[in-house]
Structure formats: C-alpha cells, structure tokens
Amino acid sequence: MKKKVLSILSLSAVLWINAQEKDSLNQKKIEEVVVTGQYTQQSINKSIYKVEVINAEQIKNMAVTNVAEVLNQNLNILIQPNRSSGDSNASIMGLSGEYTKVLIDNIPVVSDQGMGNLVDLTKLNVNNIERIEIVKGSMGVEYGNNAVAGVINIITKKSYSKTFNALLSLQEETVGKDYDWFKKGNGRHVQSLNLGYKISENWSITADVNHNDFQGYKGKYQGYKFFDPDNALRGYEWQPKDQLVTNAAVRYAKNNTSLFYKVNFLTETVNFYNPLVNVDILGEGNRTYVANDKDYFTKRWIHQFNIQTKIGSRINYTGDFSYQSQERKLQDYKYDVPNRTEKSREDKRTYYKSEVLYSRGMLSNFLDSKKINFQLGYELDRTKGFASSAIGNFGTTGKEDINRTIFNYANFLSAEWIVTDRFSLRPGARLALSDKFDSQFNYSLTAKYNFSEQSDIRGVFGSANRFPTYDELFTFVVDNNHDIRGNENLKPETGYSIGLFWDYNLKNSNDWKFNFSASGMYLNVKDRIESVIISNSPLKYTYLNIDNYKSLLFGGSVNIRKDNLSINAGVSALGISQVLNTGNITSPDDFNFYVEANLAANYTLPRTKTLFALYYKYSGESRQYVHIGNAQDPLDPGKYVLGEIGDFNMMNFTVSQPFFNSHLELALGIKNIFDVSTIRNTTIAGDGHNAGASNQNLFYGRSYFARLNYNF
Question: How far apart are CA 670 and CA 174, in angstroms?
C-alpha cells in the first residue's frame, strides 16, 4: 500500500515540476455553466446548488466507453455491476440505484422497473456528451420521485461552432489478458462516429453512432466451448455484450427561442453461457452433454423535445416532452458442448417492458425585480410496465404476468430571493399526486452567502421520496428453499438531506489557480423497504416499510491549475447507520465509517502537445451489518454480524498525441494498473455469480487500450 501511494505522489511531483509557462489549447478554461437545479443556464459559481461537473475534455482523457466508467472515478459514487445481466447502477452515499435519479438533458431515463432510477449506466455511451452534472442530496422538489440520494444529469452536445464537424473514433482494448483482433471471445472493440452540421445561424443538425463490442471476460472460467462435465468451469465471469447506440438531433435557435428534438435508439445483446452442463441421452447407448444457455436482448427508444422561449417580454418558459420505451427479451437454447452445436432454440420472450410519457414545464422571471424571482412548474409521467412470469417471480400465484400503469402528477414552486449582494435564499415545495400511492409533499431550502468574490458557502436542505420497485411490490418466489412474496400495500420511502458546502478560489502572482472545497452532508431515509420474516415455520418472507437509514459524509478537495498542468485531489469519509429488522430481531444502529480518496492529474507538453493523464481512486475498507440465519432451525431468529468489504485501489494512465494540426490523435493507456479483480466481501453470500462466499468479483483486472481519433 505504501509503495502504491509513493508511486502516485512521485508521478504527481514529476507532473508538477515539469509544468511550463506556455498555455495549452487543451487546457484553456472557459467559465463552466450548469443547468441542474437552475432556473436558467448559468455560471457554476453562481449556482444556488453545489454542482459537480465532468466535462467532455475530461471524459475524453479518461478513454472510457460509457457513463459507468466515468462515474467510477467520482468520490462517494460506487458503480455496482451485475455480471450476469450486464447492468451497472450508481450507488450514491451508500444507497443503491433505486435512490438516484438519472437524467439526459433534464429528462429521466426509462429503465426496466421505473423512470429515472435503476438505470443501467453501461447503456449510456459517452461519445455525444458535453458534460455530466452531479448533485448529491435529496432533490425531490426539482426532480420528484426517487431523487433521494442525488441526481446525475447527462448534458448532450447540441450545436457546433464550425459549419461541418466529423469525428471518427476507434478503440481496441484488452479484457484482462484476453485480446484478439478477430477471434470471438477476446477483448473490447469500440467504434464511433459523430457528425454535426450548422445549416445556418439558426439551424443545426447532429448525429452519432457508437458500437461497443465487449467479448466477455473468462476469469476462472474457460469460455463457452470448454467441456468438462465434472467441473463447472464453462462460460464467463463477465458475460459478452454487444451494444449499438445511435442519436440524431435537430436544433433551432433565434433570439429568445430555441427548439431541440432528439431521438435515441439502443440495441443490446448479452450472452449468458451456463457453467453447468447436463447429460442428454441420445439412445442406443449414446449420450452427449448440453448447457441451458440464454441470450438477452434490449431495445430502447428515447424521443425528447425541448423548447425554451419567452412569454411576452419577460416570462421565461422551458418545456420538456418525451416518449420512451424499453423492452427486454430473453431466448433460451440448448447448446451441445462437446459437438459445439445448438440442439434447439426457443422463441424470444419479453420479460420486461416499460413505456413512458413524460412532460415537465417551468415558468420563471415573473417580476420586474433583480431581487426576487419565482419558478412555477409541473411534472407528469405515465409509466406502463410489464413483467413476465417467464423469469419466474411475478404474479399473485407466481405464474402470472404483471401489467401495471401508474400516473403521477406534480406541481412545484420555488422562489429565489437575493436578500443582499452577498446573501440569497431559495425555498421550494412540491405536491405530487399518484393513482397508485398516497400524495407526497417535498420541500427544500437553499441558502448561499458570498464572503468575497473568491469565497462562498452554500447550505442545502431538501426532501424526496422513493416509490417501491416491481420486485418489492410483486415478487413471488416459492420453492423448496424460498418463500418470498411482494407487498402491493407498500408505501413510498421518505428521506431528507442537509448539506453545507464551502468553496474558495485563489490566483497568485505567478498565475497559479487554486480552488479549495469542503463539505458535510447528512442523509436520513425513513420507512425503508426490507425483506422481513413473517413466519418461522414454515419460513416465509415479505417486504415491509420498517427500516431506517442514515449517512454522514465529510469531504474536501483541491483543484490546482497552471498553464498546461491540472491537478484535482479529494478525500471523503462516509459513515452509514442502517437499522435492519427481520421482524424478530433488530440490528445495531452504529455509524460505520470508511474513507475514499481520488486524484486526477493532466499535463500537456507545450511543444508536442502530448497529454499525460493519470486517474486514481482509493476505496477504504467498509463495514455493514448482515443477517446470519440458521437454515437448520427455522425457529432460530439468527443474528446480525458486522461484515466487511475490503479496500482496493484503482488507477488508470493515458498518453495522447495529436498529429496533423490535431486532426489525428493517438491515445495509449492502461486501466486498473493495480490489477484489481476480486475483493473480500463478507456482507454477501456466495452464489453462482460470485467468486465465493466471502469474495466479490468487482473488476476484470488490468487492461490495455489504444484509441485513434480522426477529426475531419
């Protein structure tokens, strides 16, 4: 551990010492603007909320392929992958993907089980992203249901300065040690094309396509052709995934009016190769061995339209409208492993489908005053969801498909009051109505005080609620070992957060620029939904609103810039107090803290424009209580013990070199330099997808990549 830290500090020192006076075009900074939580687009320094921004240049330097990989570098955001389904959700402040709202251009993204939450971040490619904005804390007034832990807002590119833009990108990447240019089963192969055309001063069109072919990671397994009936070593630890994403958009802007329409289409195939093989009797003394494999197919459409204009000469109006659908299908087939042929293949079956109609409108700037501004808004969504008994766990009897439609409507109001030149306030409230759940009332109060032009402090209070998921409402799993049933009478969880954020900017006589930040947050969630034992003999579970969750977060960061050098470093301590309840016993409510730290360093050689980029993140050992039952005695209530999740280090390094007046760029790099794959985790039980009862496969080890960009 000491050697790793010393190597990072040494490399940072080298980057610092070699900083030159000459400015670099790649490092020039313009004042960043944000839209998340704002009345209108404005400077990040004037934002009433603390907004973290990851811009397109930073994303490019990371050499990442999707949003999940980008956010993995951020403190207090843990990307939780599911190697079987291929999905990855964002956990913020210890809360899973159900509690985080994911938006594209202020519009929540459709997912299997809802709108904006449990979004698979690997399905969001990065080649058309202008920036990602992150606000941590409860944002129920601005963004409604499920924005309990925070909001991730992905802002896409909408216009270009040049008349015609075309960018072609090719990236080849090893997956652990596996790679082959042609052979199936090795490596990641990514191709993308971005096009932009400025028709006139008012009209512009954009289009892009991205193909991400991930050929899987074998790990301890031996691939889909491997055959050994005595050892379950066939298949992959990380399943192969082939993904294609396309976007097309048109934008009109004139005077005070802008119109924007975009369509997004995604198609994805995930291959699951079963490690278990079964004997298939052919007759006449012959036999073979077959595996029951599955292919998973996803299709997603997102249509969105945005209008920004003025009503009369004063009132600002912003309207968002969207239709989205996502359908996931599976296809079972039997594979003859020794003979490497398919024996049979069933028809595709839909097992999840969501269709969403969404609209959000906001009016502001009612008064002719520089002191007070109001915002009045509405939000509505109609979500039609389907879950099939094909996956075996929905319906009142476990054998029925579930079709449900939920309509939600909300009005929200806030006022921004500039009390003095230094002090401003924004109170807000939202009333949300639903045809499924009781009415929800959320409220917020945000204050900002400027000590000087260089220093300010923000205080943020907000509340939010989370609606139950399909699993929690309708689960039905009954077999020899399980009796778990959903509960359609569940009520939404409620939560609130309090945050304090301080920023200080400094520029010295030698043109060094410093930004220091410190923050503290408290998050409280009540009526948490948890699986509860309702009968010891026979053993039965259901979901009830009985648990509570609290977290405390303290953090600090520093940003240093001078000419061609940029360094960002941060550290945080997160404490979690989670009250778990089985119905018979309750867990302790102690706060268990763990530490995270990150570092991003970028340096550009002035003469050659060679960019060196280093990204590092340390996640400390964390602890949480886990229930240990007694399978031999259903009358035994079991006990709660403190499980541990081991610490780990992640570091990526990239070198990029432009050629031909920056039209061509070659990037080479290493991801996961410390070769992390499995970490100790005693808070989960081992199963067919985990490395063992006390381990968790988190990454697939060290990988190498080469990327070629050509800008026409």
Answer: 10
